[in-house]
Amino acid sequence: MRYSSIVQRLVYRYALLTRLAHWFGAIAVAVLISSGLQIFNAAPYLDAADRSTPARRVLSIGSPAEGVGQTTLFGHTFTTTGFLGWGSDGVGGATARAFPSWLTIPAYQDLADGRRWHFFFAWVASLAWLTWLISSAVKGNLAEMVLRPSDLPKLWPMQAYYLRLRREPPPHGTYNPLQKAAYTFVLLVLAPLIVLTGLALSPGIDAIAHPLTVLFGGRQFARLWHFLAMVLFVGFAIVHIVQVATQGFFNQMRSMLSGWYRLRDHESVGP
Amino acid sequence: MKRRLFIATSIAAALCGCAPIGTALNDNPGFHHFLGLEGTLDAALLGNTDGLARQYSIADISTHFPVDSLPTPTSSSYERLLEDGFRTYSLLVSGAVDRPMHFSLSGLQRMAQQTQITRHDCVEGWSAIGAWTGVPLRHVLRLARPRRDARYVVFRCMDRDDQGTPYYESLDMAQAFHPQTLLALKLNGRPIEPDHGAPVRLRVPTQLGYKSAKWVAEVQVVASFAHLYGGKGGYWEDQGYEWYAGI
User: Fold this and answer.
1) Which residue of B has its CA nearest to A114?
2) H or E segment to which residue A127 belongs
3) Which of B12, B18, B2, B21 has the alpha carbon at shortest distance from A241?
4) Contact: B19, A119; criterion CB under 8 Å
5) Quick check: B26 and A117 CB within 8 A?
6) C-alpha B128: how far from its chain's center?
7) CA of B179 to nearest chain A CA: how many angstroms apart?
8) What is the interface pTM, i.e. ipTM, of the complex?
9) Which among B246, B171, B152 is positioned nearest to B206, based on CA atoms?
10) What are the pLDDT digits (tens) for A49-59?
11) In contact, A131 and A138? CB cutoff 8 Å
12) Tally of structural domains, chain B
């Protein structure tokens, strides 16, 4: 064991505002996903068109008969009873229902309340994002995080390390190249895209900003992109949580709670 | 192994807790009211913007326009209107106006007509494009001359839910005077069919479909809608939907 790994190299990695933004954002995103599924349940299909067009239906979740749930994706139909299309109604029974009650807020079917939660936490998430952007730009965290062209050759070696094809990760700064790629995509591309596609769904926004809705192909198309962006975000969240759990859980949690992170051998501070 | 089990259990507990905690909070009246701040905030930011809903071309018109509302009225008074081709229909413009007025269907038809091909956005998530023809609401209101204390326009409708509660809606004066807010008489060139709100249906293309009340019988100008039904300014608003329906 080298000397450097024995000495605890604690670094102050996350400013208070960044940590607050992370946890407010995490809670808000969890609420947005589950209240979003509640809203989706009111019209459980997605069309690649401006107005509703059954001929251009990409996804639909339904119940063709009592006790049966069906999901149709790009014209291929799957039986998804108990999960999608037919399942718990959240108040002790079973019913035709796209996403199941344990995934939605509130658990029972209530579009008005789902919207209330969604739009409230849309504000929370947007403010958390803005807080993070400003605080990390000021503190220099943003510069350490953004993926640069010089990181590209290190992406595969890093992945090879995770796949155990390589013993040591490539030397890197505060974030490894894959973290940079993931955070840059999610925080600087996906998050704004989710906000914009969500706004494009609203007739009041469409009336003052036609180009936004037109850009995404119209209201139903915007609904499709909004849903797809959510799926990508869920994919990120799964990988993120697995990484936190396996790459030094207590060290990672301490850093996002107190700000202090213990550097490992191959890590340093900087971009 | 214990450490891994602890980590996995705490993450799983955090994720599984999301929906039940949310539901419990949703059933808490104080928290539910607090969440309603979003509606107030959105209405303050967007409620009186004067943007125009996008206009489409004839080729964009939906072949099927869904019917998704309270059931078409079955009352004997509506049946009689249907039988005589709405010749005895009369739209009452009342309340805080200098000149309360009645408009017959032919009287409305003789006024200057506007046609708009606009998208109808349902709160449930579907959309349909239709060509709506009728009288801009502001023309009717100007004839009746709202008084100084007028703040809202309430639309009283002929449809009722299964409890007998009538449908109603409301707009503030700025939304009522919006150039695209229409008392629609025709859909796609033909008189509006009973299921779509015959003979007169409101069209508010800058807000969600529940604002576009069907089967309008009375346009009532008021200073406040707090005393009407649930007090929230509309049938769906009384059931928890936002009064400002632009989001």
Assistant:
1) B26
2) helix A111-139
3) B12
4) no
5) yes
6) 15
7) 12
8) 0.94
9) B246
10) 999 999 999 99
11) no
12) 1
